[in-house]
Structure formats: structure tokens, C-alpha cells
Amino acid sequence: MRWMLRALLALAAGCAAAPPSTTAWPALTVGQAEQSAAPAMWAGVDGLMLAWVGADETGVHQDARAITPGGVTAVVVLPLPPARPYGQQLAPAAGSDRHLLWLDADEEGQNRLYGAVITADLALKRGPTPVSAEAARRYAVLSNDNGSLWVVSSGGLPAEPRLRAHYIDPAGRPRQGNPASLAADADWPSFVRRDGGAADLFWWQPSDGTIKRASFDAESGTLSSPVPVTTLHLAPGDRLETLSAAHDRTRGYLFANLTRADGERETWFSSGQAGAAAWEDMRRLGIEVQAGRTFEAGFNAGDALAAGPGELWLSLAAPAQGDFERLPAAALAGDDLSIVYFEDGQPAGFQVIVPDAGLIGPPAFQTDGERFLYLAWAQPARSGNAALRVASLRLAAWPPAERLLHEN
User: Which has the closest alpha carbon to 241: 262, 214, 271, 268?
Assistant: First the structure.
């Protein structure tokens, strides 16, 4: 498969030494860790914050690092006593603070959802704070303008998963009382913030493979008007790794990353009009690069080539969240970390960002208010750890990051 991608890019480039589809982004290593997941990332015009799970002779710990126009911090070990933390996410809190959320075992060995608040200079302001009272295995985050969060977790009995909603205020304090139960026979929640501030929640129904959507009320934390939009069926031995919802100005999208029983990684996706009750059937994500034609993506990301549906199969897709004319999603094409742009429900543009990245888990992918794109990923290293990497054209404009780039 990889030779096919190289051949397509070479054909598109002709004799040029640097084809437009292989735009080189500045990239640097922010840490080393024994994890396959990308570091958690929050990207903004004022800088980046990243967090991951590290380990050394003292044991397991949660680490963080910040990169801003004014400086790059050292790696900070956060004073958050862990057991087996994973699934970290970062979100804006009050002011310049950030919420850090993660899953970890409690004293009885059951997974729970925890939270903390971290300042811009990586000082712990609050936490660790238990968020869920019952078992939690996956969760989705909806950020509000005032720095508060709604977090929907899936948990309960493994054979009977259900969704619960948790409110966390801008200071990182969960609302007291029993969290609202949203849906039974429900797993893999994913939020989308729609035009005008309204939100939708998507989830997978394990009993029959239905993917449902419902309006989420950010005042009360309740659902209304649930409808099935498409289905995702797994064969025996297949694993669903991630389910992500996103949208552009006219359409909604769903991306499911699968690992088949034979170890093959695939991405399947569906699209539909944002208000439609039913979307297209899930289908495998593949592209065909259109040689010699460029694509105007509308982001500060460099040049891209035009593309359409095809049989250059992609995997480990991670869509960006926001309100865009065209939806960008990071994905792996062969061993190359790439971006595919969607328009009218179909792949329409493509560019290779990091050749030979060799991802071992899904990337983290975000955009900021000035339409710069940011990628973070875990890349195998000879040491046995993964090198935790981050890339963006924005980094070249930040002098401290520019100096660090020369050390990588």
C-alpha cells in the first residue's frame, strides 16, 4: 500500500523535489513515554499544553509541558498520585487554566473518571478530583464558553453500558448529587457543538450496532429527540478503537477506527445533512489523489492536492472540531501521517504532513482561532519508548519553539 502512495505523490509532483502534498511542518519531540496514544493536547493562538503518562524508577506519573510564543517549559511531573492512568484530555477552564481529565483505577481497582485544574505555567490548582461515582471506561467532553464542562461517561456493567452526564464548573468542581443517566445500551459517546452553540451527542448501541444522535441541553444536561443515524457492525474479534463525530458548515460526519481480528486497522465513516434523521451507510475511508490538481483547504497548513474517494485506504482518523467550510481529519496513509479534507460528505483534498511517522495509536488533531492546525502523536523509538511528537506551521513563528526544533 505504501508504494502506491509514494507513486501517486511522485506522479503529482513530476520532477519537483518537494511536491505540494508533502508539505513539511516543523515537528519536535516533547517527551518520551511507554504509551501508544498521542499526548493530550490543547492548542490556542497563545500556545500549546500537552500531557501524557510517564514512568521512571519512581513509578508511573502524569507529565505535562507547555509551548508558548514566550517560552518552552521543562517537562513537569504533576502531583497527581496515579494507579494506571490513561485516556487524558485537556479542555479550557477559568481564565488561562486548563482542565485535565483522565481515567484511573480507584482503591478497589475499578476505573473512574478524575479531573484536575492546571495553570498556564503547569502548577496544580485543584485535584485529583473524582468525577464519576461508578465505573467509567470512555468519556466525551463538551466545553462551555465560561470554562465549565459537560462530561458524558460510558460505564456501569460491561455487558450493559450506559451514559451518564457530569457537570464540572470553571474551577474544576463537579456538581454534587447523582449524575444524570442519559441512555442505556449506550457506549462510545462523542460530542459535536453545532452552529449557534447547540450541541449533539452521538453514541454506539452495542446490542445492534446502531449509532444514535440526540440534542444535548447544556443547561440541564439532558437529551432530547434521539434518532438512529447509521449502523456499525463488528465481526467476531473486531475491536472498535474510537468513535468521533464532527461537522462542517452543511454536513455531519462520523468516523470509526477499527482493528480487525487479523490486526488490520481500518477507518469507516458516514456523512449526512446536519439535520437529517438518517445518514449514509458507514463505508471504508479510502482516497484517490488527483495528480496535478491542487486543493484550497482554507487552513494555515500548506499546499494540498485534490483527491476523491478511492482505494488508498486510510486508518487512525481523527477529525478536527469546529465550524469549517471543509472538514480536516488527520489519518495514517501507509506509514505517513496525513490530512484528508472533506467537502460535501466526500474526501476532496489530501496532504502528507509527516512521512514515515509510523503511528502506533490515533493522533491528536486540533485547530486554533487563526486556522493553524496542530498534530500530536506517539512514534516508536529505538529506546523502546514512544517519542511524543507535535507538529504545526505555527511552531516556526514562536522563537523558543524554533530553537527547540533545531535540537530535535
Answer: 268
Measured CA to CA, the distance from residue 341 to residue 328 in angstroms comes to: 4
C-alpha–C-alpha distance, residues 211 and 228, integer Å: 6
pLDDT at 63 over 90: yes
Rounded to whole angstroms, the Cα distance separating 231 from 209 reads 5
Check if the beta carbon of residue 269 is closer than 8 Å to that of residue 255: yes
Residue 103 phi/psi, 5-degree rounding, is -110, 140
**How much is the pLDDT for 9?**
41
Q: Is the pLDDT of residue 194 over 70?
A: yes
| Cα angle 136-131-374, degrees, rounded to a multiple of 5 | 80
The length of the chain, given as a count of residues: 408
Amino acid 356: pLDDT: 86
pTM of the shown model:
0.90
Please enumerate in sequence order all residues whose Cβ is within 8 A of that of 53, keeping only pairs 6 or more positions apart, or say none. Answer: 33, 35, 60, 61, 62, 63, 82, 85, 86, 88
d(CA 174, CA 153): 13
Cβ-Cβ contacts under 8 Å for 191 (sequence gap 6 or more): 140, 141, 142, 150, 152, 199, 200, 201, 202, 216, 245
